[in-house]
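We were asked to recover a plausible sequence for a given structure. The inputs and outputs are reproduced exactly as logged, with field labels preserved.

PROBLEM: sequence recovery
POSITIONS: 404
GIVEN STRUCTURE:
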């Protein structure tokens, strides 16, 4: 039998991160590679109690097919919780998804034609590129800096008429991969560009609750609600194994997203939705998330201290002759840049020999990748592992610099 693949199948590529994670299964490897939440944060006891209540109180409904839009009480909770982001939405704008990754896929299916121009940050989330690429768009990188995407370049690339970009995809809060956060001034400027040019915004916010000292500014979607789709997730504040996320869309766009959802999986598992709604109903999240923030802040501070100890400088680094890094104010990642002459992809196997792993940053670029960039995740390693792993990374870099 000879299978003939669709042309779009040729556009599908394996996740670089998933492939690297296979390498990190080697015993003794300290991994800064995965974007995985710390399992220490999973509320196992609360989940067990909620599961028992759901099965006892309405188990037959919980185990039955359900509405494609999602479980009503959970949609109500999302709409209420989004007030923290400055948003005012009704529950009938909320679509529960099988992880926020499905939200990216649904957006791609209804908004992208072959050859459509879409805009992304530099760099951007690899999973979004994977979701969009099979639809065969033209992906355009918008210049970005420590404050996020640059409004002037966004305006220049928004286009008009037949050449107008279908949307810009943005992660304003503790971005994956860089950990940067878009400032208030930049958000205002970006929202104004979107309004002026009619450019839709896809706002992805899986990390927004994970701030260390102060919450980020109000969402982009709150500034342009009719021109935005907002994606959220329960993976980072409860557990990724639930595969539970949501999107919020303007009422004019919602029906098509719902139809795409129905074609994909009928509905997100109703059992999972009911368990989460049961966990959330008594204000549990307001007690739980601060414990995650405290843990991640301590781990981030440990990694920053280890970097300063090993490389002898602070802040943004010591120039092209040494490692450079940023200082995130929340989330799970920090962004580094290798000394001149080194390539992160080539360095990774050498790092694994030293029992430490990272993700080369080139995987996160739609174009013109920086081969010196690396993403480090600090949330799944203990302070002791962070100290050991950063020392191993420093040794790897020093060895690479001395090689002819």
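RECOVERED SEQUENCE:
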């Amino acid at each position: 039998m000879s299978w003939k693949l669709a042309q779009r199948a040729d556009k599908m590529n394996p996740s670089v991160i998933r492939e690297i994670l296979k390498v990190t299964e080697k015993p003794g490897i300290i991994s800064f590679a995965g974007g995985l939440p710390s399992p220490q944060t999973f509320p196992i006891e609360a989940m067990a109690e909620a599961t028992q209540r759901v099965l006892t109180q309405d188990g037959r409904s919980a185990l039955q097919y359900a509405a494609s839009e999602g479980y009503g009480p959970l949609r109500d909770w999302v709409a209420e919780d989004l007030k923290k982001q400055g948003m005012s939405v009704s529950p009938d704008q909320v679509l529960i998804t099988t992880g926020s990754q499905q939200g990216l896929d649904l957006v791609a299916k209804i908004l992208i034609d072959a050859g459509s121009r879409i805009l992304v940050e530099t760099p951007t989330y690899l999973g979004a590129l994977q979701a969009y690429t099979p639809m065969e768009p033209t992906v355009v990188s918008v210049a970005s800096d420590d404050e996020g995407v640059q409004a002037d370049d966004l305006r220049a690339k928004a286009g008009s008429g037949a050449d107008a970009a279908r949307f810009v995809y943005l992660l304003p809060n503790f971005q994956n991969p860089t950990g940067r956060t878009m400032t208030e001034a930049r958000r205002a400027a970006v929202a104004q560009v979107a309004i002026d040019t009619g450019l839709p915004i896809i706002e992805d916010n899986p990390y927004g609750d994970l701030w260390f000292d102060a919450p980020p500014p109000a969402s982009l979607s709150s500034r342009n609600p009719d021109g935005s789709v907002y994606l959220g997730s329960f993976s980072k504040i409860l557990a990724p194994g639930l595969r539970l996320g949501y999107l919020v869309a303007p009422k004019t766009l919602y029906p098509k997203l719902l139809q795409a959802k129905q074609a994909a999986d009928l509905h997100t598992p109703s059992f999972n939705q009911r368990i989460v709604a049961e966990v959330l109903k008594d204000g549990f999240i307001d007690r739980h998330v601060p414990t995650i923030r405290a843990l991640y802040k301590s781990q981030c501070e440990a990694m920053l201290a280890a970097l300063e100890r090993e490389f002898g400088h602070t802040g943004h680094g010591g120039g092209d002759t040494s490692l450079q890094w940023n200082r995130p104010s929340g989330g799970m990642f920090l962004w580094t840049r290798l000394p001149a002459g080194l390539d992160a992809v080539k360095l990774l196997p050498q790092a694994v020999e030293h029992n430490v792993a990272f993700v080369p940053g080139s995987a996160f670029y739609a174009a013109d990748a920086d081969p010196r960039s690396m993403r480090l995740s600090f949330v799944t390693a203990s302070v002791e592992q962070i100290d050991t792993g950063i020392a191993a990374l420093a040794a790897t870099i020093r060895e690479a610099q001395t090689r002819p």
